[in-house]
Structure formats: structure tokens, C-alpha cells
Amino acid sequence: MEWLWTIIVAVIGGAIIGGLARLILPGRQNIPTWLTVLIGIAAALLGGAVATWLGVGETRGIDWWRHIIQIAVAVLFVWIAARMWGNRTAGHGTGTGRPVA
Fold first, then answer.
1. What is the C-alpha to C-alpha distance for residues 53 and 46, in angstroms, rounded to an integer?
2. Distance (Å, rounded) from C-alpha 54 to C-alpha 80?
3. What residues contact 13, with CB distance under 8 A and at least 6 apart?
4. 60: left (phi over 0), alpha (psi -120 to 50) or beta
5. How far apart are CA 42 and CA 87, in angstroms?
6. Are 46 and 88 in contact (CB under 8 A)?
7. How far apart are the first and last CA of the chain?
């Protein structure tokens, strides 16, 4: 049953970290919510590993540096994903159902 809570916490944490990254990044990111959550999960894992490698992964109290690193990684990943997703959908119309003039 512990694995279920690990997955639930990873999804919720990923959604929070990914959402914060999208709020911090200026402009509009045209990426789906599921991709934001996956980016948040990946950024949490990679950012946590980097924080541990730097020696700031586990501190007394709130691990501010770890969270800052995780969010910074998420911002980078969201920026990359938004560029890639935008290129993927470029040329397929505006998404409004109307033809592009």
C-alpha cells in the first residue's frame, strides 16, 4: 500500500511543481495538463537528485534550496516542452475549427 501513496504524492507534487513553473514562465504555454504533471514529476526527481549532489537535499526544516532547484528545472522543462509542442502543432490551424487565412 505504501507504493500507492508514493505515486499519489508524486502526481500531486508534480502537478504543483509543474503548475508553479507555468506560472513563473512568462507568456502562454500551449501544453496539455498531463504534460505539465509529467514535467513536474521529472523536475522533482531530477531537482532532488541535483540538490542531494550539491549537499542541500536534506536540511532541518523545509528544504527551500531543493524546492527552488526543482522549480528551476521545471521552468526549463516547461519552456522546452512549450517550444517543442508549439512546433509540433504549428501549421495545423489555430485550434478554433476555422481555416487559417
1. 10
2. 24
3. 40, 41, 44
4. beta
5. 22
6. no
7. 55
User: What 8-state DSSP symbol labels residue 32?
Assistant: -
The answer to whether residues 2 and 56 touch, using CB atoms and an 8 Å cutoff, is no
pTM over 0.85: no
5-30 per-position pLDDT tens digit: 888 888 899 999 999 999 999 988 88
**Cβ distance 24 to 67 under 8 Å?**
no
Report DSSP state, residue 100: P
Cell of 57: 537535499
- The length of the chain, given as a count of residues: 101
How far is it, in rounded angstroms, from Cα 45 to Cα 65?
14
